[in-house]
């Protein structure tokens, strides 16, 4: 009963000792608890670190402790991963179920890719300016629905709603233009008080880590309802996040300067916020790679997003999630939505044995990503995957 094991890490693993992402998992027949991934194994932190803070159904109890605690735990997990552990503290990734890792407090989605905003502007306003006048002055965003954030693997029921007919009147039915948005999500671990904005340079004191996000979008519902206000039922039916949260410190080698911002933003959006991130995403549609969005081209940094989100004095809470907005590059096969890739449904996307513009029932989308790891090699962010079910 007291057997001990040492975790083997495959040579080219995206889950090496400098990554150590967190999840919430259920051992067979057991209660949900916090785990850390090493190679193809999960370390049960409540057992390995003998700490009830990790015998919890979300990361929130841990995240709320703040950055000092995050760093200490990360060092302890690193040491545990290198030592012999009680067999009861180690599970195979394949043998357990993973849950939503965070109890999502508020959810905000931005629109921070210049290539995405430009493409959407060209689609909807072919004769006008691609960018609206505010776009280069602030990270545009909206508040989404935190209660429908679901973990990767959750099946997505096709939404129904009002859509506009060619006669200009609405009809009701299943969305025919169901789309994805490949995004990066940022998880607030340590919140902030009402009335006190978060400065760009304090980003890492508040943000615990990152997770891939798929912001499922019904373009036909969105197009009819979102005038003059922002996204509503066209987005709120589901937002998927990966089961793994990569600690911000694990991305230290992926930090790069932002692309140039012109004009220079207002002072509250400047500062020591060199939080560009060299992350390569990949979108697979029914097993076929269709796009490789480059996060490094994002115009607004997550530090600027957080500063803007709180500049009016809005507080933040443990579990707040804010996402980058669709990540797109300049090329067709770098776009992070099918709306852009198919140019509003006019240019079908080749899936090998089929062509698509928007999602059909039974289709499955997987978004994956990798980034330079501390000490060399690459780390793999947790996948976000979902399959479309017909309306019920
Ligand atoms: Mn979005």
What would you note in describing this structure?
- The protein has 392 residues and is an alpha+beta fold.
- The protein folds into two domains: 4-99, Fumarylacetoacetase, N-terminal domain (SH3 type barrels); 107-389, Alpha-Beta Complex (Fumarylacetoacetate hydrolase, domain 2).
- The protein has nine helices and 28 strands.
- The strands form eight sheets. Strands 8, 9, 10, 15, 16, 18, 19 and 24 form an eight-stranded mixed β-sheet that branches.
- The protein is globular.
- The mean pLDDT is 97.
- The structure holds manganese (II) ion (MN).
- Manganese (II) ion binds at residues 109, 181, 183, 215, 325-326.
Provide the CATH superfamily of the largest domain. Answer: Fumarylacetoacetase-like, C-terminal domain
Helical content stands at 10-25%
What is the class of the largest domain in the CATH system?
Answer: Alpha Beta
Strand content: 25-35%
What is the CATH topology classification name of the largest domain? Fumarylacetoacetate hydrolase, domain 2
What general outline do the C-alpha atoms trace?
A: globular
Termini gap = 48 Å
Low-confidence stretches: none
SS field, number of helical segments: 9
Give the strand tally: 28
The hetero compounds bound to this protein are: manganese (II) ion
Largest beta-sheet details: 8 strands, mixed
Average pLDDT reading: 97
Query: Structural class per helix/strand content?
Result: alpha+beta
Number of domains: 2
Rg computed from alpha carbons, rounded to a whole number of angstroms:
21 Å
CATH architecture of the largest domain: Alpha-Beta Complex
């Amino acid at each position: 009963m007291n057997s001990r094991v040492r975790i083997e890490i495959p040579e080219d693993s995206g889950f090496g000792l400098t990554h150590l992402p967190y999840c919430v998992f259920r051992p067979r027949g057991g209660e949900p608890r916090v785990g850390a991934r090493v190679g193809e194994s999960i370390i049960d932190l409540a057992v390995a670190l003998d700490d009830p803070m990790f015998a919890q159904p979300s990361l929130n109890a841990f995240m709320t402790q703040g950055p000092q605690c995050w760093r200490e735990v990360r060092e302890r997990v690193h040491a545990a991963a290198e030592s012999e552990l009680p067999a009861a503290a180690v599970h195979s990734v394949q043998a357990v179920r993973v849950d939503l890792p965070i109890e999502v407090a508020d959810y905000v989605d931005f629109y921070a890719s210049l290539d995405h905003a430009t493409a959407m502007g060209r689609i909807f306003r072919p004769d006008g300016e691609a960018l609206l006048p505010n776009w280069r002055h602030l990270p545009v965003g909206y508040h989404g629905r935190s209660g429908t954030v679901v973990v990767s693997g959750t099946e997505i029921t096709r939404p129904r709603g009002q859509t506009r007919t060619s006669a200009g009147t609405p009809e009701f039915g299943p969305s025919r233009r169901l789309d994805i948005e490949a995004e990066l999500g940022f998880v607030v671990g340590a919140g902030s008080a009402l009335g006190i904005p978060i400065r760009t340079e304090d980003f890492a004191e508040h943000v615990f880590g990152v997770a891939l996000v798929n912001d499922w979008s019904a373009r036909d519902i969105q197009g009819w309802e979102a005038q003059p206000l922002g996204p509503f039922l066209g987005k709120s039916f589901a937002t998927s996040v990966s089961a793994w949260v990569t600690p911000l410190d694990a991305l230290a080698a992926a930090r790069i300067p932002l692309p140039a911002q012109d004009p220079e933003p207002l002072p509250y959006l400047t500062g020591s916020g060199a939080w560009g991130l060299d992350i390569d995403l990949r979108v697979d549609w029914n097993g076929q790679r269709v796009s490789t969005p480059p996060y490094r081209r994002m115009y607004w940094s997550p530090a600027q997003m957080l500063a803007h989100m709180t500049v009016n004095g809005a507080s933040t809470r443990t579990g707040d999630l804010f996402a980058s907005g669709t990540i797109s590059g300049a090329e067709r096969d770098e776009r992070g939505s099918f709306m852009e890739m198919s140019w509003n449904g006019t240019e079908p996307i080749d899936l090998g044995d089929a062509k698509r513009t928007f999602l059909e029932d039974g289709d499955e989308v997987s978004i994956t990503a990798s980034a330079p790891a501390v000490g060399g090699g690459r780390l793999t962010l947790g996948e976000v995957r979902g399959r479309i079910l017909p309306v019920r």
